[in-house]
Design goal:
magnesium, 7 strands, 7 helices, metal-binding, binds magnesium ion, seven-stranded mixed β-sheet, alpha/beta, globular, Rossmann fold, binds guanosine-5'-triphosphate, GTP-binding, 215 residues
Length: 215
Amino acid sequence: MKVTKSEFVISAVGPDQYPVDALPEIALAGRSNVGKSSLINRMLSRKNLARTSSTPGKTQQLNYYRANDDLYLVDFPGYGYAKVSKTQRAAFGEMIERYLLNREELKLVLLVVDLRHPPSKDDIIMYDWLQYYDRDVCVVATKADKIPRSRWSKHIKMVKETLGFRPHHSMVMFSSESGLGKDELWSIIQSYTNYGLEADEANEDDTFSIEKGQE
Ligand SMILES: Nc1nc2c(ncn2[C@@H]2O[C@H](COP(=O)(O)OP(=O)(O)OP(=O)(O)O)[C@@H](O)[C@H]2O)c(=O)[nH]1
Ligand SMILES: [Mg+2]
């Protein structure tokens, strides 16, 4: 998908602040500091639209970013950050659980994990949780630029095994640094959002082989 327009829309602390225009939503879940906001910036070709930081635990609401006028990318608070208080953690958990349970516009959850390491206990809990709520999932293994290409397949295998990856879900290797996986991830997202055939046909020249050639 070619993103020609993108904007930050709202930091929502609860359902009464979620957008009401019924556009499809793609949510990003993942450990704090794993690279969710960086992934959003790369997907939208923006340097600093989603705030990234080396201080984990910064994102504490559901942050909505609109791509074209087609869909929202929804940045979740990162989990697994020790310095967030128990009360805060419970409140985020509740908000996310309610969102996952009820949000009709939610079409796909990107579970962002670090390609370098086996998924954490929290990653596994989140993956199981998403399956329990019967949500479609795409596992995005990011920071691929941090390990040599010769070890990518070994690491993908490790990620899949640790998570108990289900073959009906999708998986993509990604790097916000190099752009690896960007077009592939857009194709996956488009296959889950229902602005459908027309958009797909219009984007035939936007194939991921182009960027793959640049890896
Ligand atoms: N080399 C490399 N660094 C990355 C990549 N993605 C993210 N980073 C770095 O990892 C750090 C955390 O990235 P963020 O995008 O802020 O992580 P986050 O998941 O949004 O973190 P929270 O908002 O705290 O949950 C930053 O220093 C990024 O520059 C990547 O693909 N490659
Ligand atoms: Mg973030």
